[in-house]
Specification:
The chain is an alpha/beta fold. The chain is built from 15 helices and 19 strands. Strands 7, 9, 10, 11, 12, 13, 15, 16, 17, 18 and 19 form an eleven-stranded mixed β-sheet that branches. The longest helix has 20 residues.
Length: 446
């Protein structure tokens, strides 16, 4: 069989000669293993769809002796990135290593050498997506990344293709399967945070460093990727509101439930014109809302288009096979573009503009506060006063029977700026009324 040349893109912009498409797989863990399983199971159907067979030529790993989920010819496995990135028979590189480096330099080298790339790496895309897309454009190759957001949910292609004719101005979603799984297990099954996390890791949902999940960073990376697609935004790297579920107390989840809410780790993206609002944090949402019923490892994303109105997508957001479905769907698109002699067609034509973030204090929503206060006369009035002075109006107040000279006050506010809550809490901290730090959770009416 003839091997493809390692030549620049211009030579590729003619119809493929009918030979198989060579694939280099970087990483063979949870997702890489799923990709190989899917390629093996559906080889004939994929060949029919693309027009030529897809052949995995090299697989980069760290440990050659680790057992793999599919049987691999030992000669295919390598620990040398050059063996993949300079192999002239590799036309498409699939990056499923994760993290910014060394994955970033491998992706850059692959694109720079005129190879198409499929990646599931949201951390890399959030940090360097615009530069990598520019490089792909320059080299007229594809950089496809459906699996980077929402696991198996086709949200990237929905924004790229289906919403190409519309203007998306708002998104709200549950984008971290690990967080959603942990919260669901804690709420529904009463298991501890630690045990639910261990379970999520065993199922292959969590990142290699699970604090990326539980600290809210993984969801934030995905939101940045969506903001590029939905708002054409190139947001700055710092300044987003990012909070995780690791500090959540079961007590607040229970109180929220009594008030008709459930707690989800949510991302919110809004295009305000001059600035973009991007936030990722635990949020109270109505149990009966569409996102309120998205549980377990499922992700959900609600997009608002000016012409279409709301559009809701949901499905399995993590795990080997759902993610592999997205990776391989990208591979099929990219392979078809290669066969047609038009690589770059899938991902080209995007224009990203630098956009500032809305200042965190400017975002407006309702708020849930739980304050442990001294159980003394005048405290409630001073707490309400501090909020009133900051321009925050209260919608609901409840105080549980105090114990040991202390009591919990739960407050739900009307819509107020995040910054106003910070101001009020700072004023309260200066008094001796607060016994410990306040719990502050945001509420979204979706
Ligand atoms: P994983 O199970 O930890 O697999 C990582 C793979 O990369 C392993 O095969 C590992 O080799 C290899 N690797 C790591 N560092 C390497 C290095 N320096 N040189 C060569 N090989 C290296 O991770 P994963 O869960 O498959 O995730 C991979 C990517 O997909 C990440 O970007 C992740 O965020 C993304 N993603 C994951 C999911 C999911 O549900 N897991 C969903 C969507 C997206 P060894 O096997 O030899 O250790
Ligand atoms: N760790 C990620 C999650 C994998 O739990 O959502 C899918 O991107």
């Amino acid at each position: 069989m003839a091997l493809r040349s390692n030549s620049p893109t211009s030579e590729r912009r003619r119809p493929h000669g009918g030979e198989p498409i060579g694939i280099g797989l970087l990483g063979c863990g949870v997702v890489g293993g799923g990709v190989l399983k899917l390629l093996q199971a559906n080889a004939e159907a994929f060949q029919a769809r693309v027009g030529v067979p897809l052949e995995v030529r090299r697989v980069l790993v760290r440990d050659l002796d680790k057992p793999r989920v599919v049987e691999l010819d030992r000669a295919v496995l390598t620990t040398d990135p050059d063996a993949v990135l300079t192999d002239p028979s590799v036309e498409v590189v699939i990056e499923v290593i994760g993290g910014e480096e060394p994955a970033g330099q491998y992706v850059e080298r692959a694109l720079g050498s005129g190879r198409c790339v499929v990646t599931a790496n949201k951390a890399l895309l959030a940090a360097r997506g615009p530069a990598l897309l520019d490089l792909a454009d320059e080299r007229r190759v594809d950089l496809a990344f459906e699996a980077a957001v929402g696991g198996g949910i086709p949200v990237v292609r929905t924004l790229r293709d289906a919403f190409a004719s519309d203007d998306v101005f708002e998104m709200a979603g549950i984008l971290n399967g690990t967080c959603n799984y942990i919260l669901t297990r804690m709420i529904d099954d009463g298991v501890t945070f630690e045990s639910a996390l261990a379970d999520a890791q065993a199922k292959g949902y969590a990142e290699a460093d699970p604090t990326l999940d539980t600290g809210g960073f993984d969801a934030a990376h995905k939101l940045v990727v969506l903001a590029m697609l939905a708002f054409g935004a190139r947001p700055p790297h710092d300044g987003m509101v990012i909070e995780g579920i690791d500090g959540l107390e079961l007590k607040d989840i229970e109180i929220a439930a009594r008030l008709g809410y459930t707690v989800k780790h949510l991302v919110i993206g809004r295009d305000h014109g001059a600035a973009v609002e991007l936030r990722a944090h635990p949020t109270l949402i109505r149990r009966t809302s569409v996102l309120g019923s998205v549980s377990g490892v499922l992700n959900g994303i609600k997009l608002e288009g000016r012409a279409l109105g709301p559009c809701f997508l949901s499905g399995r957001g993590a795990g080997d096979m759902p993610t592999a479905v997205s990776v391989v769907a990208d591979l099929l698109d990219v392979a078809r573009s290669l066969v047609a002699g038009v690589p770059g067609l899938v991902t080209g034509g995007r224009r990203l503009v630098k956009r500032p973030l809305l200042a965190p204090g400017e975002a407006t929503m309702r708020h849930y506060l739980r304050l442990r206060v001294r159980d003394e006369p005048g405290v409630m009035a001073r707490v309400a006063g501090a909020l009133g002075d900051a321009g925050v109006s209260l919608s609901q107040i409840e105080q549980a029977e105090g114990k040991g000279g202390e009591a919990d006050i739960v407050l739900v506010t009307h819509r107020a700026k995040d910054g106003a809550i910070t101001t009020a809490l700072e004023a309260m901290k200066k008094s001796a009324d607060l016994v410990k730090g306040a719990v502050h959770l945001r509420i979204e009416e979706l």
